[in-house]
Amino acid sequence: MKFTNRKKIFRLILEKIPTVFWILLLMVIYFSVSSSNFLTLGNAINLSRQGAILLTLCLGVVVVKITGGMDLSNGAVMSLCGMIMAWALVNLNVPVYLAILISIIMGIILGTLNGFFVSILGIPSFIATLGTQGIAVGLSLGMNNGNVIAGLPKVFYEIGNGSILGIPCPLWISLLVFALTNLILTQTPLGVYIYALGGNEEALKLSGKPAWIYKILAYSYSGLTAGIAACILTSRNMAAQPTVGSGMEFEAFAGVVLGGSFIAGKGTAIGAVLGALFILVLRNGLNLLGIPTYLQLAIFGTVLINAIVLSTLVERWVQKMRDEERE
Hints:
Elements: H1 5-16, H2 19-34, H3 41-66, H4 74-91, H5 96-120, H6 125-143, H7 157-161, E1 163-164, E2 167-168, H8 169-187, H9 189-206, H10 211-237, H11 248-258, H12 269-288, H13 293-326
Antiparallel strand pairs: 1-2
């Protein structure tokens, strides 16, 4: 049977535009109708400042997820990077730019450690990153006896709370991270190797490529984004808290999966952004509607599972239409 042009166009739309986009669109419409405060400039600015942190983390996690791994340490790594940065600013009086550099380097070191555990020692990524999470949490709590580090210089405030051309600085930072991630995944040989790691790692090894190096680089990049996220979060709060990133690793992972990275070898920077926006819009909308916290958790879990199931079903449907098209 001939595959009609209309069905082909429909298949291309479903294939090119992630399912999470349509669910996100429906959520935006629903919350816009339900709350008069949702579609306001003030809420959009607030959402962009808060969301830049999760967005930045997701852009690092998606690179690891494409290789077939998972990073459960980035929330704790973000907390530790923030503590080290704040400690350097307050106790060593280092310049802000140097403190930021220290935070990013610390993130890269911990990410590289994850990559070493996974690629060299052969430890499953779930266990390796969970172990690094414990190390980071312990160091964060031990740095200042579990207390907050405050008294940061006023100039540091602008990173998380300032604006450039009317756009919040955190959003500018996350947009730069998005551009870098998209460039790496789509325009560089490293991106090709990262997808190959997830698609067929053995074939990559047989081709003579040092697969272990590319895997380490993927985890290092996730650590880098955690270090950047730490700068935004610490500046927003003007203080570093040892457990502030607790739970964010699961949100980042959920956002990446929602964005289309269901299996190894799949995922995009745009998908990671859409997944992060899904979580942010849902959380923000429920807050504006005054939903109690315990109900928010239940609703969030229910919507998350349904969104992933729907995305999986659409993926299978698209594959079925693609097979029919070949017949």
